[in-house]
Design goal:
This protein has one helix at residues 6-16; strands at residues 29-34, 58-60, 74-77, 82-83, 92-100, 109-121, 129-130, 136-139. By secondary structure, the protein is mainly beta. The longest helix has 11 residues, at 6-16.
Length: 141
């Protein structure tokens, strides 16, 4: 089920009731491709991330996203194409994504979800690409 990590859910809930201040996330955030669907308890350091040669998390600005829409479910989607670097070696089957606070390693997962359809990465395939409206983050209602 797509959503936010446990760490982010706790920060949001405490912010909503004025218990703590949850500042705006960094801009840019970084999109990670995953070999398994992330789960709530994952962090940016524990996800099973793509390993193909040429892979790096993709920088995403707030302006790469459209306005959120009320559901059910409530969603937000990319309005700009997201194109990862070409694969120059190895291969991966991408099953999911994670929107992280860091370009590499540790950090929070702001949101995650499945790649539907899954994306096959290899030297003969086009780079991983998300046309506008195809990378969708949702909160269940």
């Amino acid at each position: 089920m797509p959503g936010a990590s446990d760490a982010v859910e706790l920060k949001l809930l405490e912010h909503l009731v004025s218990r703590t201040n949850y500042p705006q996330p960094p801009n840019p955030l970084f999109l990670a491709l995953t070999l398994a669907l992330p789960i709530d308890s994952d962090t940016a350091a524990t996800i099973s991330e793509a390993t193909y040669v040429g892979y790096a998390r993709k920088s995403m600005l707030g302006s790469d996203w459209g306005a959120a829409t009320i559901g059910p479910p409530t969603t937000i989607a990319n309005i700009n194409p997201i194109v990862f670097a070409n694969c120059t070696g190895g291969s991966n089957l991408i099953l999911g994504f994670a929107l992280t606070t860091t370009a590499a390693g540790a950090g929070d997962i702001q949101a995650y979800g499945p790649c539907s359809p899954n994306i096959t990465i290899n030297v003969a395939a086009s780079p991983a690409t998300f046309p506008p409206g195809t990378l969708v983050i949702q909160f269940p209602d």
